[in-house]
Amino acid sequence: MESLKSINNLNDLYNQVVVERNPVIIGTAIFGLVFTIFILIKIRLMRCIKLDTKVLHECTKKGVGLPIDQAFEVIHKELIKHYPQFIAAKRNWLLFNGGGAMGQMCVLHASLSEYLIFYGTPLYSQGHSGRYLMDVYDFMIQGETKQFFPGYFKPINFPAGQYSYLPMMVAKGYCCERESYMLEYGRGIIPLALPYFLCSSIFVTLDIIPWLQAVYFVGWEVTKNLLFRRKI
């Protein structure tokens, strides 16, 4: 503790880090630097948020109760009406594996700060949500999802018309009942979530094609937003 109290200027700090290599000082400096960078990135990304969760929920509810193909069509048109610059005109579906769960997804919007997808499965599926530097909202269109957190001994149910919220750096267990579909929205540092998908493709399914397809569709949307809409 005496060495910590002796830091009164930059020369003292230099001696502690470079000369004496004090592990406490070095660790504190690294943590402070990483935390500062994270806060700056977070502030910059939050300024680029364009999608509103209330609007997304209202759009989703317009498709509840309809046949699923029709529901996707109605919700997609509503999203384009509210966000004509940011929603993809075409719907391309691809397989998704992550956290032990399998489903299919359709990328509607992707940038460095936000993503919006249709996601679901005609079969029962369950897995780990992942733990991200972003917030995730799941707006249920059809079916039901169930989830739990550590210390919960009964499932939390989210039927069609409701939505669940997963805060940043929080993980959960979840399952999708048969024929469950949702509109999923994430906001935060999106690129750091890619390994969740990539690791399952490489080490579990040994099927890299869905990941490459996702990189293409997501990369195209991110590039359009960066170059033509100046949206991070």
TrEMBL record:
Q: Which residues cross the membrane?
A: 24-41, 188-212
Name the domain of life this protein comes from: Eukaryota
GO cellular component terms given for this protein: endoplasmic reticulum; endoplasmic reticulum membrane
User: Where in the cell is the protein located?
Assistant: Endoplasmic reticulum membrane
Please tell me where this protein is predominantly located.
Answer: endoplasmic reticulum
Annotated keywords: Endoplasmic reticulum, Membrane, Transmembrane, Transmembrane helix
Q: Which Pfam families match?
A: ERG2_Sigma1R
- The answer to keyword Cell wall biogenesis/degradation applying to this record is no
User: Of which family is this protein a member?
Assistant: Belongs to the ERG2 family.
* Record protein name field: C-8 sterol isomerase
Q: Which species?
A: Dictyostelium purpureum
